[in-house]
Amino acid sequence: MQKILEIEDVTVSFDGFKALNDLNFNLDVGELRVLIGPNGAGKTTFLDVITGKTKPTKGRVLFKGRNLRSLSEHQIARLGIGRKFQTPRVYLNLTPRENLELTSNRKKNVWSTLVGKPKNAERNSVAGLLETIGLSSRADIPAGLLSHGEKQRLEIGMLVAQSPDLLLVDEPVAGLTDEETENIGDLLLALAESHSILVIEHDMEFVRQIARKVTVLHQGSVLCEGNIDQVQNDPKVIEVYLGQPMDDSDTAHSLELEASGSEL
Amino acid sequence: MLIGLFDGLFNGISIGAVLLIAALGLAIVFGLMGVINLAHGELMMLGAYTTFVVQNAFRQFGEPFFEIYIFFALIAAFFVTAGVGLILERGVIRYLYGRPLETLLATWGVSLILQQFVRSVNWVLVIGLAVFCVLFFGGLWILNHRQNRAFHKWAIAALLPLSLGIAIAVGRFLADTYQLAVTRPWFGAQNVDVSAPTWLRGGLPLGNFQLPYARLFIIALTIVCVAGLYYFLQRSPWGLRIRAVTQNRSMSSCLGIPTQKVDALTFALGSGLAGVAGCAISYLGSVGPNTGQNYIVDTFMVVVVGGVGKLVGTIVAALAIGTVNYLVGSGTLAILFTPIQPLADFFTFFATTSMAKVMVFALIIAFLQVRPGGIFPQKGRTVDA
Amino acid sequence: MDAVSRIGARGKRQAFWIEAAIVGAIALFLIIVMPVVLSNFRLNLLGRFLSLAIVALGIDLIWGYTGLLSLGHGIFFALGGYAISMHIKLEDADGGLPDFMSLYGGTELPWFWEPFYSFPFATFAVVTIPALLAGVLGYLVFRNRIKGVYFSILTQAATIVFFNFFNGQQKLFNGTNGLTNFQTLLGASVNTQSTQFVFYSLTIILLVGAYALCRWLTSGRFGRLLMAIRDDESRVRFSGYNPTEFKVLVFAVSGALAGIAGAMYTLQSGSVSPRLMDVAFSIEMVIWVAIGGRGTLVGAILGALLVNYARSFLSEQFAEIWLFFQGALFLIVVTVLPDGIVGWLKSQGIQSLRGRKQAFTYPSLEEDPEIQQERQELETKSSE
């Protein structure tokens, strides 16, 4: 199967501290992958490397077979990688409609932004998108007045509006209610029909809802990969999360309990 | 030739030392609060004027005491400017955290006020100001301790013109009664001169040129300040708190560090250092209301080039900028390059104090192309998150 | 949906014509009525202040909308002034050297003065030299993602540098005294009343043009992108835009406006000198915008006029307290009136119109059918 994202031996070090350490990772076209790992495992740095915010100290990142090293963030975004941040980041002084219009704009150079008028098709797709994320009634008030959950939804909407081939989603359900969480899960599953998606999440119930394949990151490299049950029963994973070597099957059970709470 | 270069280096370093001592305060405040204090130069100017006042006071005591006034002047300058800094932080800047650009504008306003204050300060102004403060802030205090808040806003609105009017009336009355004795400005718009004690005049002869004692003194003072600051930040409990807040403000606050006190203390410390710097520069030339402006931009450049959060960066940047400034401005480089005519012409063009600034600025812009974050940039994913 | 948007479009067009009519009426009023009412001296003062309003618009564009505080617009302002003055000096010299050059022992015209013989080139330079300088400086700074306070103090340093440069070059620019004593422009004497009236009218026309340009830049998608850059630059980057390009363009436009303003100011004040590149003057420009209300174009113009009238009044009456007053102005505007006069009026107006602003934070209130209906009513009202 064709790979959309290949990460080969990537190391990122900040003053000697290795946030990523010889990391290898692949993502197939059309795959939905969940990335978990304890705090400080390097998850966000991992996204930084893909989106060009941080350049790898060593190794290379290939997107659709193309090396991303020499490209800056906006060029990578134009290639078709969209990113949602850990805390929702939307333009607070613009309305949700304007937020979506800005990101859905296809031609992003200065000149077309200056003279281009939004096309009808674009306007309609923005309206449809507002419907999908449930913000139609809120479309024309400043986004700063939206609640946290609404901002989360708006940012996912912006991500979709950008129509990237690969979506990087950092903790999409942090701070949301159970119902909202499920909605987001459904939304991501629907998106997965036509996009490749990489999700970082702590909420194990949510991971269970959407995940087909899970990758566990620890100290900057991949600890193990597999479906959710394999991962949860993996002795290495249990050790990393619970901080003790495991010798009986009870521990696996306790991880299960722990995990079905919310935060790991 | 070699002597010339050595002379240039020495002078450059001594200019760098002045920049460094001026930039130290600015750098720790910028590192901690992300705030550039445009009134920093005026705080230096206040320090210089304090030195002038202390000098005049000691002159009356006669010879043996006059020789050591400089140490009292340093202490006085430190505390006067630290006090002004504290008022500034408590009164204005703490309301502007998280809005660094507004802070720039507000501190610029303060610098204008301080400049004009030094020009026109006299007894009438001081007494009027005191009367106003007592009435207005006393009134506010009483208002805030009353239960009935119904007319609060209106009361403040009435209080302001009332106390202002009384203060002006008192001032007028004093001016009419005592005439020139109270209306004569203390310093005036003219520059004043601070004379160094005898042991700071002259210089250390070295070969066929001499190292002026005043400059040696400033270099020594800078070393003492840097060492003291380093010791304070690395070894004292408050230093630890300052470093903690610099790293992560909200976490420190959660851990029970009184961040507001830390801010106030740091700002006062930074301002106090400006006062010490002002004391130092009063020996390099006459002191006027605009003295601060001459140093301030170079000082800012030191902070930009040095980067945030590391004292070493500030030190290296100050010395580098000072040295380059002097080497270019004094024409030392132009002489050095005499054999290569085009280069010599090029450096001759820049061989005045003001043109050297042009060149240094160009170099700084060029430097920022290579290292936008300064000499020692911060790393990690927290940067501009 | 379509019907609603069509109504919205018609409303927009209507609003556009109303605004254009108001602007035109004010401009005509200024051109026709003011010369009758005001003495020549006062009219000249008004003309100068109106040209300062043009630079205020430029600063609003870069600071109010894009969030970049430039403390160096004095450079661009002065460069515009120098460009037009150099042409006048050459015309006055009538083929010879400008008067000051021979004074300092200059024997031939520096090469970069040559093109200023031509009036079209000089007017072209008024716009392009500041724009180019702003573009280059902006590119070098923005491309390294230097922003915020760093950008501000770099522009301030640039101001000092240019001040020093122009101040130190007696032979090239007459140093501290600058260029003054203008005689003729395009054959007409500069100092007659009728020429001055032409300058005054031209200033108003240019101000209207600048207003229209800024209005166009800030109202469409481009304007929203500027605000997006102000709110969250790196988000803009991850959405696929390159903020550097936009910032460079806006800074250049803003510099060009400052250049035009400087040229008009110089023509009406009769001199240009390095004092226009004084650090204090550049920061003062920012405070005009802050007082009027940044992020609102009308605010920038109003602020420039208000502060400058206050200045001329106060420094005529009590020269001493002007600095105190100005310092207090800086403090007041950032602590008490952060949105400026126009911003304050707006927010007060909106609050009295709909006191339900807080309701959005409470989802339970929001689902209240009554409130939903109220909003719908308001929306249809505002779109009509």
From TrEMBL, chain A:
InterPro entries: AAA+_ATPase, ABC_AA/LPS_Transport, ABC_transporter-like_ATP-bd, ABC_transporter-like_CS, ABC_transptr_urea_ATP-bd_UrtD, BCA_ABC_TP_C, P-loop_NTPase. Keywords: ATP-binding, Nucleotide-binding, Transport. It comes from the Bacteria. GO terms for molecular function: ATP binding. The keyword ATP-binding applies. Residues 5-244 form the ABC transporter domain. CDD domains: ABC_Mj1267_LivG_branched (cd03219). Signal peptide: none annotated. Pfam families: ABC_tran, BCA_ABC_TP_C. Coiled coil: none annotated. NCBIfam families: urea_trans_UrtD (TIGR03411). This is Urea ABC transporter ATP-binding protein UrtD. The gene is urtD.
UniProtKB/TrEMBL annotation, chain B:
The keyword Ion transport does not apply. The chain crosses the membrane at residues 12-36, 68-88, 100-117, 123-143, 155-175, 213-233, 264-283, 295-312, 319-340, 346-368. It is found in: Cell membrane. Its main location: membrane. Pfam families: BPD_transp_2. The keyword Transmembrane applies. It is a multi-pass membrane protein. Keywords: Amino-acid transport, Cell membrane, Membrane, Transmembrane, Transmembrane helix, Transport. CDD domains: TM_PBP1_LivH_like. InterPro entries: ABC_transp_permease (IPR001851), ABC_UrtB_bac (IPR017779), BCAA_transport_permease (IPR052157). It comes from the Bacteria. Belongs to the binding-protein-dependent transport system permease family. LivHM subfamily. NCBIfam families: urea_trans_UrtB. PANTHER family: ABC TRANSPORTER PERMEASE PROTEIN (PTHR11795:SF447), BRANCHED-CHAIN AMINO ACID TRANSPORT SYSTEM PERMEASE PROTEIN LIVH (PTHR11795). This is Urea ABC transporter permease subunit UrtB. It comes from Gloeocapsopsis crepidinum LEGE 06123. The lineage of its organism: Bacteria, Bacillati, Cyanobacteriota, Cyanophyceae, Oscillatoriophycideae.
